[in-house]
Amino acid sequence: MKTPLEGLRILELGHFVAAPFCTRLLADLGADVIKVEPRQGDPVRQWGDMVDGHSLWWSVHGRNKRCVTLDLKSEKGRALVLRLVARCDAVVENFRPGHLDKLGLGAEVMRGVRPGLIITHISGYGQDGPYRDRAAFGVIGEAIGGLRYLTNHPPGTSDLPPVRVGVSIGDSISGIYAAFGLMAALWQRDRVGGDDQARTVDAALTESVLSLMEGVLPEYGALGKIRAPSGGGLATAAPSNAYPSRDGCWVLIGANSEPLFAKLAQVMGQPELADMPCYQGNKARVENVAALDALITQWTRTLDADELLARLGEADIPSSKAYTAADCAADPQYIARGMVRRVEDGWFGCEVLHPGIVPHVPEAPGRVRWTGPRIGAHNDEVYGGLLGLADSEIAALRAEGVI
Prior knowledge:
Elements: E1 9-13, H1 18-28, E2 32-37, E3 50-51, E4 54-55, H2 56-61, E5 65-69, H3 75-85, E6 90-93, H4 99-102, H5 107-113, E7 118-123, H6 138-144, H7 147-150, H8 169-191, E8 199-204, H9 205-210, H10 216-223, E9 240-244, E10 250-254, H11 258-267, H12 282-287, H13 289-300, H14 305-314, E11 319-321, H15 325-330, H16 332-336, E12 340-345, E13 350-355, H17 379-386, H18 391-399
Parallel strand pairs: 1-2, 1-6, 2-5, 6-7, 7-8
Antiparallel strand pairs: 3-4, 9-10, 10-11, 12-13
Helix pairs in contact: 1-8, 6-8
């Protein structure tokens, strides 16, 4: 069976994280993504750990995409963009709002050569509103979306800054929403036979994060309550936290239902806990969570992580060690489902570990067709094969610094 998005062609006018993450998800499912980069390449090529000057992050970030170089500020470069647009179903971009218009590549211009083109914008605050023109990165989206306030220890327990999630979560979340919006627009367009109506997707980093904030807004609106940081636990259920083992690991235990808490109490050798009024029912356990977590911690510190997890597993209590990269790479479940893959990367002359493709489509599982390519790796293939430029024309464009 063909991959789910085979036959779909997308032009990426993106840089850094959000738009490239969006298109990588689509490319993994079979879409033909043509990524336009400046001649020096996407800045992310210089991020993260390097091997011989090549980014290991880029190996994943740019995979399954055809990468071409192009000077968007040149007249000939803009002409090439429009020729590419004419051959694409959608454009994904994450410049500041209005930037493409200044380059002469606004929505009307692009749709003039490709009626029905779906344009997906990813920006800090969206394409309109009073913050439209403000600078933003993912961390700012996380802050304004309410996430950074909550990723902290409970009030009064630490003077350190609120903890950052260890990846570019704001950018990635907006990329996921953008991919979802793009596919919804494509479905709407193509279900009626591919009409030429303009369809735009406007994904803001701030809004993408805020949309994940569960009951934060309704709780404030109805009760005036501002949800406070809760550290490693859940503010609404207990026990559910990370607990230290004897050998220095953190083990997460989720026993926040009556049957599970009774099992945990039994495994701890303290079955009477389940019958104590202060721990009967989730509401009581939440109100007394500090004392309960202290008891659980006292127990977990007596066991190494493997023994602790074995006992919890035998009792069928949701639990796991807080995984490191090494734990993820060795996990048999990930390996069985192809979520950790060894992929040959020519830049490094060896296999590189990649995360698998999400979502998993058993009937047509996607694959890593190639890793993040070199700058301009597909110039000849795209400009010559797709657009039909002669070798001499491509050589001239190179000499002029257009590509």
